[in-house]
Amino acid sequence: MNTLKVLCETVRAPEKEKKIIHRGSRGLNFRDLQEEKDFQDFLELRDPLLGSRAGARPRSCSPRQASPPRSRVQRSSTEKKAEKSRHLSEEALVEEKSVTLPLLGARMLSAVPMALLYQDNDLEHVRSLFCAQVPEARVLEIFRVENATLAGVYSAVREAMGSDCELDLWHGTSSECVPNIVLNGFNRAYSGRRHGTKLGHGSYFSASAAYSTRFCDRKRQRRTVFFAKVLVGAWAKGSPDLVEPPVKDAEGLIRYDSTVDDLLCPVNFCIFRDFQAMPTYLLEFTI
């Protein structure tokens, strides 16, 4: 307490009145000590307020500039990587050729919208259906399939089945399969070559566009998915060993028309006749 009092009196005294103050054999000459660079540190060590009163450099009251938090730095780095990835993706899209060009030249595809029963623009309607289920995707192109031969055969199969249970479903596929499907329809002979046969050895369709995108070629930036009309008819529970739908009657003369993943609320369907489905629209998209 006495030391603090001596310090205060020494600091407040005018320069000409400051005296050399000693304290026993361990005395300190404060006037000489003020000229030393360690004086400020000495005073602040005892009392930060004394250091400022003694002519030491006052401390700033303004807040320090906070360095960016680590999470923000990491997020910024992530954003830069994402931006770089987008640029690379755009370049890859430009380099990749669309598989639809030859089909457009053969007039098997059309990009001209038309009015149907309940919408003025059929292409935009299909686009909105897809984007609602796959919001992270960006649709590049959308085409209507115009194959009169397929339409005629599909109509004949529908009459032969005698069923009006027809659904609009999605079918994801690789780009290299697109020309064959547009020209010749869906072929169940390809079943099981790249994907499983959970519901049987047939052609697969789904009410979920997001689920269908799993079966697109992920090595390409441009991916393809079909929107198709499918005659699902009466369905039964599917299994991997089926090469035909299960029998429907006791005599084994009538079979179901398709197999599904869930009898009460089916999402995925498998059909076993090649012309039991018809491609109606083709979408090219990227994620």
From TrEMBL:
<dbReference type="InterPro" id="IPR012317">
    <property type="entry name" value="Poly(ADP-ribose)pol_cat_dom"/>
</dbReference>
<protein>
    <recommendedName>
        <fullName>Poly [ADP-ribose] polymerase</fullName>
        <ecNumber>2.4.2.-</ecNumber>
    </recommendedName>
</protein>
<keyword id="KW-0328">Glycosyltransferase</keyword>
<keyword id="KW-0539">Nucleus</keyword>
<feature type="region of interest" description="Disordered">
    <location>
        <begin position="53"/>
        <end position="89"/>
    </location>
</feature>
<keyword id="KW-0520">NAD</keyword>
<dbReference type="Pfam" id="PF00644">
    <property type="entry name" value="PARP"/>
</dbReference>
<keyword id="KW-0808">Transferase</keyword>
<feature type="domain" description="PARP catalytic">
    <location>
        <begin position="76"/>
        <end position="287"/>
    </location>
</feature>
<dbReference type="InterPro" id="IPR052056">
    <property type="entry name" value="Mono-ARTD/PARP"/>
</dbReference>
<feature type="compositionally biased region" description="Basic and acidic residues">
    <location>
        <begin position="77"/>
        <end position="89"/>
    </location>
</feature>
